[in-house]
Amino acid sequence: MAFPLSDLPNEIILAIAKELHSEGAINALARTSRHLYSLLNPFLYQYHEHPKIPALHWAAQGGYASTLISLLDAGVDLYASSIWFPDQTHTLTHHPLMTAIWNGHLNIVELLLDRGAMSERLKEEDYELPLNRAIWHGHIPILQFFLQRGVNPWHTRKMDPALVAAVRRGCPEMLKLLLRDAEHRQLLDPSQRLQELGHALWVAGHHGNDELIHLLLAEGADVNFRWDGTTSLDSAVINDHYSTAKILLQAGADPKMLDCDDIGPLARATKPSEAIWLRQGTRRYMNPRHPSHLVVPYPQVVRDELVAMTRLLLDYGADAAGPDGATALRIAMRTKNPELTNLLLVHGARVLGINRTTHGASEENNYWV
């Protein structure tokens, strides 16, 4: 005589479930009656103790707190070998914690750290990737949460400094939050602060983010700070950011500053950048120029850009008669740019025999000869 499956003793039903080797099969069995659902639902969560734990990522992606709580209560392994990599550069690269941060779910981040007790196991360096990704994806509440938990955003070892990451994101609110937190907790001494601000200013110049340039200068960034041998003015000029270069010059950027190979803003203004910067939301991204814009002789529209930038630098005191001007003139002639050549000559530029053997004739140096 047939009788309902749900009439079987619970022990037998659980024994049957344990012999089912797929999540879908267990789920199908659980849907046959309310009794089986209530009995097997906890077992279904326990199923995800096994390495792939797809439900954990699903809960983190969707922000499903109740699902995550059920998984944690069922003993899901937050340190399974498929999501926890202590021997790699970043332990948490493939962890559901990163999935939650990517999707901006602060509630899931809190549950994993507190109810899941991850905060007891994570080391200081483990927070570097989560904090960086919170900045990169623009999730201010998650960044605030980490800062309030005492995470030090300035102890970066493997990624961009926090302030630079905020500049790349294009988020003034994050810059202010990081700087105010550093002041409140006294995390930076004066020299460290200048270093962080200077690096961030250079990156803002590279991206052509005028709003962040103003903000960083107001915070005390040194407009002539060198990063990797070049200034924020160099960074703006070489990327064809005219308005950014003008702001920096108005703030006191020195157009006569040269690098160790006697290359300065004038020489950097004589060639078009290989990409133009576009804006999407708060971010700026590079888009390759049309190939025809990089072929000598350059189109008139490109020559006009180069002349405008060079004229701006000369108006603010760039030294056309020095080695930077000589390199600029040499490039202007070789790229068959008569307007630029004449402008430099009028301001005293002359072709000089430039000896670059002091620092070695690298491919990068030859770019400017």
Automatic annotation (TrEMBL):
InterPro entries for the chain: Ankyrin_rpt (IPR002110), Ankyrin_rpt-contain_sf (IPR036770), Dendritic_Spine_Reg/Scaffold (IPR050889), F-box_dom (IPR001810)
UniProt KW keywords: ANK repeat, Repeat
Family matches, as SMART domains: ANK
Keyword hit for Nucleotide-binding: no
Domain (F-box) ranges: 2-50
Top-level lineage group: Eukaryota
Coiled coil (residue ranges): none
Chain positions of ANK repeats: 228-260, 324-356
Protein name: F-box domain-containing protein
Lineage of producing organism: Eukaryota, Fungi, Dikarya, Ascomycota, Pezizomycotina
